[in-house]
Amino acid sequence: MTAGITPCHAHNDKTQQQCQRSDSMLVNQLREDGVSFSHDNSVTLLMTGQEKFDDLFKAIKQARSSVHLEYFNFRNDSIARCLFDLLAEKAAQGVKVRAMFDGFGNDSNNRPLRRKHIKKLREEGIEIYEFDPIRFPWVNHVWSRDHRKIVVIDGKIAYTGGMNVADYYIKGTKEVGSWHDMHCRIEGTEVNTLQTIFLRTWNKVTGQNIHGPQYYRGLGDVSYFHGLKRDTCDTAGDKMVGIINREPHTSNKIIREFYTHAINDARDSIMIINPYFTLNHKIKKALKNAAKRGVKVEIMLSVRSDIPLTPDCGFYNAHQLMKHGCTVWMYKPGFHHTKIIMVDGRFCTVGSANLNARSLAWDYEENAVIIDPCTTDELIQLFNSEKKDSFRLTEETWDAWRTPWQKFRGWFAHLLTKFL
Q: How far is CA 93 from CA 120, 128, 129, in A?
């Protein structure tokens, strides 16, 4: 175990019982909110863009019946072209390829898919549709956007996490430098849950009615997928996983309930990395209370960001939480777009949801909640290894880093929390 945190299982029996209580409490709370958990999953963490795309491309190459992709955007660059070439190849072999992207996600990125690209993809056998296309008077995208990242292959293996399809997950950008993010591959019953989410959205967007047992093979034979990164935990194949899926009007509160419960249930430690740390009142209060009751709360934010104002609000919140006893690490090289929380060394999440108003109150989002000390420990090791490239926030480093104008900008941004 990396220095810097003692996992619950290294504590005495009493503390261990308290920590075990935190994960069982969370599971019970989420079950009451309609989340189902299964115990037969493997979760392989893909810690970099290179790892994610290498693994995903290998899996797609070996697909036999269907490839389903739901992304906020496919940036029209070299990695997307490689992906679409591969998907066209699979479609020519008779594999059903269905892809979906968000209208705003596409139009707001600087290399969008144009009509001519979509037409060409359809001619190559790829069924591709736009979720909520932007249309006159151009306000429909102001509210709910599809921010999920889901791929399901043959109904047997699934990918989810924080990455869209873009070169910068591997190459970085001029503006922020290297781009850090996380994804995971799931095998087991929760693949079926992710397939259900995909097909419900697909059928709604396309007016089709795609269904049937061939799409739900979560416990099917995956032995024909070769060369993929393995889940090396002893718990591989036996992990407890639940999918929290935020849909407007049906499960509005689920992401914020998860974070609030997870923080309130913590007895020992909380570690968070999140790029857009605007928070809502309940989560902010929960973090302050956790620190107050002696939980070791560590938060990692990036010094750099890809958007204006929102990070200023995050920095303001981080400074406030630091004053209430939380430890804040400011990551310097590149941009950490990773969205994870680890609690008591016992459970964690990997998914698409940020800690901003969009993810918590507006968008379609989805996270895997993994109740497993081994997977949680892998993320803790990532967190601890990133500390060497971070500075710790103190009053001194805060004053040295933020000018009076930047501090004011952060204070002003926090007044706009509900819109960021």
A: 18, 17, 21
